[in-house]
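Per your request, structure below.
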C-alpha cells in the first residue's frame, strides 16, 4: 500500500520549520529505517508530519517479522490500545507471509480470544516461529487456554515459545507440533506425561526449555536430536531422566531431592539405548545451581545434588554453585573418591555472598582439591548476592552518574521480583521555573527507564515501576532511621 503525500516540511516543537529531507526518501527506504528502531520509537515518528502518520504501521506490516514484545511499547499504554495496534498491523499486513510472530501481554483475561486468533493467523500464513508471553506480571493468576484445534493442521512451525498458557486441550501428537526444533514453556501447566509424549513425537526437536512448570514431578526426556536442555525453577520436580545421545548443553536451576523410596523415582540420570547408564552424551557444557532458588536446609537438602555432578562432570565447561560444593563435601563423609573431570577446560564457581561463612571457604578449597581436571585452563569465581524477595528499592540523592547507574544495575540484576524503583534527586535538580533543570530531569528519567528496561528483559521476571522525583515530592516509604549522625559531624 502506497502512502501519498506532498508534504516536504516537518514541524518541530520549539524550532522553526525546516526542510524535511527524510520524507523525500522513497517509501521502501523509509520502511527499512523505521523497521529497525524499537516499536515505541517507531510509533512516535507518526508525530513528525502527515507523511509519517502511518509510516511505522506500514513498515511493520511490510516485514515478515511481527514482534510486539518491546517492553517500552507495552509500558504505560492501555491494554485495549495495544490489542488494537496488533489487530491493525495484522489487517494492514493482509495475506502476506509471516515468518516470526511474537507478542507479550499482561493481563490478558479480556483479550484471550485475540491472542489465540493472532497465533492462528501467524500459523496460517506460514510462521516458522511463534511466541506468546503472558508472564509480564507475577500477580496475574490463571493461564490462557489454547484450543484443541490451534495446532491441528500441518504447518511450518519450528520454534514455539509459550508463557502462562495451558496445553491441557492440545494433544501431544497434534500435526502442527511435529516439525518443532525448539520448544520453550514458561509457567505452563504441562504434566510429566505430556512432556514425555511431546518430546518423543517431535522427532526434530533440538532444544527444550521448561521454566516454572510446577506440575512436573518426574520428567523423562528422550530425543535423538536433542542438543540443549534447560530446566529452571520447577518447584515440584524430584526426578529427571534424559536419553539424548547427542545432548551438548544442560542447564538446571533448582532442586533434585533424593528421597529413597521404592515407589517413587528420584534423582538425575542420563541413560543410553535400553536405559543403559554407562552411555552418557558427550556434553560440551553444564550449568547447575541452587542460588536464588530458596533457603538452604541441611536436613532437607543434604543430598539435593547427589549424583548430578557425577552425571555432568565429563563436560568441557561446568558452572556450579556453592550449595553444590557443600553437597560434595558432605558426600565425601560417606563415600571416598574424587570428581573425575577428564574433559573439563573451564570451571565457574558461583559463591552466595550473603550466606557465605568460614565453612564455605573451607569447602571451596576442599572442592578444588576433589576435582581431578588435567585439562582445566580457565577458573572463574563469581560472588553472588541474592535479593530474591526484594520488591521495593529507593535511592536518595540520585543524579544519574555512571557510578550510580552501575550500583543500580548491580542491585537490579539480583532482584528478580522487584516491583517499584523510586529515585529521589537532590533538591537542586529540577527546580520549578527553571526550564533547563526540568529538561535535565526528563532526560535523566528517560535514561533510567531505558537502563532498567534492558536489565529487565535479560534478568527480571517483570519490569518494575520507575518513579523519579525531588525530596519534596517524595511521599513513598522511607526507612525507620531518618536521622543520620554522620551529618552532625563538623
Amino acid at each position: 500500500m502506497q502512502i501519498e503525500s506532498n508534504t516536504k516540511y516537518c514541524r518541530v516543537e520549539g524550532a522553526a520549520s525546516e526542510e524535511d529531507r527524510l520524507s523525500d526518501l522513497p517509501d521502501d527506504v523509509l520502511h527499512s529505517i523505521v523497521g529497525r528502531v524499537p516499536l515505541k520509537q517507531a510509533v512516535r515518528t507518526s508525530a513528525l508530519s502527515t507523511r509519517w502518520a502511518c509510516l511505522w504501521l506500514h513498515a511493520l506490516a511490510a516485514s515478515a517479522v511481527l514482534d510486539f514484545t518491546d517492553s517500552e511499547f507495552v509500558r504505560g499504554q492501555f491494554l485495549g490500545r495495544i490489542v488494537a495496534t496488533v489487530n491493525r498491523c495484522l489487517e494492514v499486513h493482509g495475506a502476506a507471509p509471516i515468518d516470526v510472530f511474537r507478542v507479550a501481554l499482561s493481563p490478558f483475561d479480556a483479550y484471550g480470544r485475540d491472542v489465540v486468533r493472532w497465533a492462528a493467523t501467524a500459523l496460517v500464513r506460514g510462521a516458522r516461529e511463534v511466541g506468546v508471553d503472558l508472564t509480564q506480571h507475577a500477580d496475574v493468576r490463571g493461564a490462557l487456554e489454547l484450543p484443541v484445534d490451534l495446532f491441528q493442521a500441518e504447518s511450518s512451525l519450528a520454534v514455539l515459545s509459550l508463557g502462562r498458557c495451558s496445553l491441557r486441550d492440545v494433544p501431544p501428537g497434534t500435526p502442527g507440533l511435529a516439525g518443532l526444533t525448539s520448544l520453550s514453556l514458561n509457567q505452563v501447566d504441562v504434566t510429566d506425561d505430556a512432556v514425555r509424549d511431546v518430546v518423543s513425537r517431535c522427532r526434530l526437536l533440538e532444544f527444550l526449555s521448561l521454566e516454572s512448570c510446577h506440575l512436573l514431578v518426574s520428567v523423562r526426556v528422550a530425543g535423538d536430536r536433542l542438543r540443549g536442555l534447560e530446566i529452571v525453577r520447577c518447584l515440584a520436580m524430584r526426578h529427571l531422566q534424559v536419553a539424548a545421545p547427542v545432548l551438548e548443553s544442560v542447564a538446571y536451576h533448582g532442586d533434585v531431592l533424593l528421597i529413597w523410596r521404592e515407589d517413587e523415582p528420584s534423582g538425575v540420570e542420563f541413560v543410553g539405548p535400553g536405559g543403559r547408564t554407562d552411555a552418557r552424551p558427550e556434553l560440551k557444557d553444564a550449568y547447575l545451581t541452587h542460588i536464588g532458588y530458596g533457603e538452604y536446609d541441611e536436613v532437607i537438602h543434604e543430598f539435593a545434588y547427589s549424583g548430578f555432578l557425577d552425571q555432568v562432570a565429563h563436560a568441557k565447561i561446568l558452572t556450579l554453585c556453592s550449595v553444590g560444593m557443600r553437597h560434595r563435601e558432605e558426600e565425601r563423609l560417606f563415600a571416598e573418591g574424587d570428581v573425575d573431570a577428564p574433559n573439563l577446560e573451564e570451571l565457574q564457581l558461583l559463591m552466595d555472598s550473603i550466606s557465605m561463612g568460614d565453612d564455605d571457604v573451607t569447602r571451596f578449597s576442599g572442592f578444588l582439591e576433589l576435582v581431578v581436571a588435567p585439562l582445566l585452563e580457565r577458573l572463574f569465581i563469581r560472588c553472588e548476592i541474592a535479593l530474591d524477595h526484594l520488591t521495593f528499592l529507593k535511592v536518595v540523592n540520585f543524579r544519574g552518574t555512571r557510578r550510580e547507574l552501575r550500583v543500580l544495575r548491580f542491585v537490579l540484576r539480583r532482584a528478580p521480583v522487584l516491583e517499584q524503583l523510586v529515585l529521589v534527586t537532590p533538591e537542586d535538580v529540577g527546580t520549578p521555573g527553571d526550564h533547563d533543570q526540568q529538561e535535565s530531569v526528563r532526560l535523566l528519567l528517560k535514561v533510567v527507564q531505558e537502563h532498567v528496561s534492558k536489565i529487565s528483559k535479560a534478568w527480571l521476571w517483570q519490569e518494575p515501576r520507575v518513579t523519579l522525583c525531588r525530596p519534596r515530592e517524595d511521599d513513598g516509604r522511607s526507612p525507620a532511621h531518618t536521622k543520620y549522625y554522620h551529618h552532625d559531624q563538623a
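Residues 23-63 form one domain.

Regards,
D.
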